[in-house]
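From: lab user (bench 3)
To: helpdesk
Subject: output format question, protein + zinc ion

Hello, I'm new to running complex predictions and I'm not sure whether the block I got back is the full result or only part of it. Here's what I submitted:
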Amino acid sequence: MLSATPERLLIRGGHLVDPASDVDGARDVLIDDGKVVEHGQDVDATGARVIEVDGAYVIPGVVDSHVHLVDLAHPDAPRTNAYQRLARAGVTTAVEFFDFAAALDQFPASTAGLTMLGLQGIREHDGTASRGVLRDEVAAALRGGAVGVKLLGGHFPNTPETSARVIAEADALGAYCAVHSGSTRHGSNLDGMRETLELAAGRPVHVAHTNAYLRGACADVDAENRIALELLREADRVVSEAHLAEFNLCVGTVADGAPTDHIVRNCLRLGGFSVDVEGLEQAFRAGFAHVLHDTGEEPEHITGERGVELWKSDPPGTMLNFPVNNRMSAFFQTCARVGADGSLRWNGAGDFVVDAIASDGGTWRNVILRRGMALVHFGALTMRQLVDKACRVPAQLFGLTAKGHLQPGADADVAVVGLDGEVRLTIAGGRVVYDGHDVAGDGGKILTTELGAPAVAERGIDYEVVDIGAGLLRSQARDQAV
Ligand SMILES: [Zn+2]
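Helpdesk reply: Thanks, we reran it on our side. This is the complete output you should expect:
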């Protein structure tokens, strides 16, 4: 049963996995007034609604460090299904990675009791933009409520010089800075990722979806993975995340007979098709290009003749998917860790090279827990390591000290997950926002900086100010391995 307001709840009979509390075993969890009160074996349930979870995993709500809340093909839509879908996937906090201003526009009509923060994409500049122009753009993002900015390199590349300046200006203004690698010089591939690290020149940068750059464009996929992991290990002040999904997402817009999105062009090249409308149609007929058809509870991927029809009916209003995310890269990037002897390994204890598992989803494919649990069953991650990468570390990246763990006093954000990875219950801020059937349709809050607080307040949205500077990206105060 959903909660209208934060409740006193006892989650009883579950297997709590909370690395921050050093707990991986049978524990009951008591929450009240939106916070965790305690967890233990015989917790007094007086005055609490008791939820029996029959041995399911009880973990901190997932913190998805890279989502797209706004459907890029319909940025002006009044609402989005993303929040409902995130709640159903056990996500209680998510970070918008494209257009936070548009996400804020949709928030009141879309919210499902979750916590959101986000980055504002830097637009594509002609030539090299001046420092002043870029500083103004970063400052405007912060004043608009975003906690930082994102370079949209792969999709809307800037020159390397402009990209480097954005990273520097974001650093100077204390903003979070994430990069989808790629510029006017290098594509969204291993060379692009190497270039990002060079352009950062020791400044803090979050490298988005490291797995997505490793599709064999620059070398064999296994060689690319090893090189990428070495680059990330050597890079100071860089954090990163990888995702576990096969499909990518790009926009269907066409100009002068060719797709405008550089990612579409890359995919067509990768699949051996010509980089024009004809090539895209052939890619559909070959079962390679798909339309993201979003009409039901979860979206479908449609290829073939029907895909061509859907896309042609409204190219700019259509999102496209290609199954280009290499499975080996997803595994390597998610599971690679450095053992005590300094060597890379894919099981056992160690410090993970890529910090977090994200979805790069939001409006679609919220598969962190389902796919993450598959890796647990496979023996590549322990449950504690999965919680670390899906909850605790992503919260730390952004300085969210009350999230990603369930120590007393933490925000009462909880996911109850079956052994199959199926989310049974999601609690956010002490409210049941997903009960296995229904999803809440109100509440939630925005996390912003001091600079952004007035803009969020003006919209009448509940908010809290966070200190991004205390987060792992900007402070690099790393914890021990689990
Ligand atoms: Zn993304």
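A quick orientation on your result: The chain has a mean pLDDT of 95. Let us know if anything else is unclear.
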